[in-house]
Amino acid sequence: MMELASGASKRRIAIIQGHPDNTGEHYCHALAAAYAEGAGVAGHELRTIDVASAAFDLLRSQADWQGGTVPPELKPAQETIAWADHLLIIYPLWLGTMPALLKAFFEQVLRPGFAMDLEAGGRWRRRLEGKSARIVVTMGMPATVYRVWFRAHSLKSLERNILAFVGIKPVRATLIGMVEQSDARRRRWLAHLAALGRDAR
After folding, report:
1. Sequence-ordered list of residues with C-beta below 8 angstroms from that of 94, at least 6 positions apart, any chain
2. CA of 162: how far to CAs of 54, 133, 188, in Å?
3. Selecting from 3.40.50.360, 1.10.10.60, 3.10.450.50, 3.60.21.10, what CATH number does the domain 12-199 have?
4. Which of 99, 91, 181 is nearest to 142 (CA)?
């Protein structure tokens, strides 16, 4: 990889915008923009996947997942994920988990033959090893409540059952609670995302 002036390696970053409303007017979009700005200043390469902009069918059977093909609308998303060294996944917490559209996206994109292969003996070979990820989740409740009372169950599912299953690690998480509380708080988080973008982490 190329070396940046700071000595850090230049990275290829894919931002997966998981908000299901593609108007671009939500806090998730502002957070992604702040991260992208920081990453761009630091010289990292960026591509963005806007999940809400892609019209695709839901996956409805195991047979389709195992033997079908990714919808043409999502082929560029697979290419971007394959290209990237690092993924930034941003979404709002809806009913305790990621929005249904984002889950449907992962079901379609992370298919056998792309994200993993079933080898002889019934073991899965992870095809996305060497990539890292950061998950950013926004929510109305305090982040501590989500972590302690709800045990961050949906976040752990994404980390372990989806990303780790296809070889993506390490996976770090940023939980942003009480997003409606104050403009000053929101600005602090935007600055934090910009710093994470500069460091590509």
Report:
1. 100
2. 20, 12, 30
3. 3.40.50.360
4. 181
Whether the bond into 170 is cis, omega within 30 of 0: yes
pLDDT per residue, tens digit, the chain (201 aa), is 334 444 458 999 999 999 999 888 899 999 999 999 999 999 999 999 999 999 999 999 999 998 999 999 999 999 999 999 999 999 999 999 999 999 999 999 999 999 999 887 778 899 999 999 999 999 999 999 999 999 999 999 999 999 999 999 999 999 999 998 889 999 999 999 999 999 999
Residue pair 120/167 in contact by the 8 Å Cβ criterion: no
Domain range summary for the chain, segments of one domain joined by +: 12-199
User: 156-170 burial, b for 16+ CB within 10 Å, e for fewer?
Assistant: eebbeebbeebbbbe
User: Six-digit token pair at 151?
Assistant: 């045990």
Tell me how crowded residue 55 is: count the other CB atoms within 10 A of its CB: 8
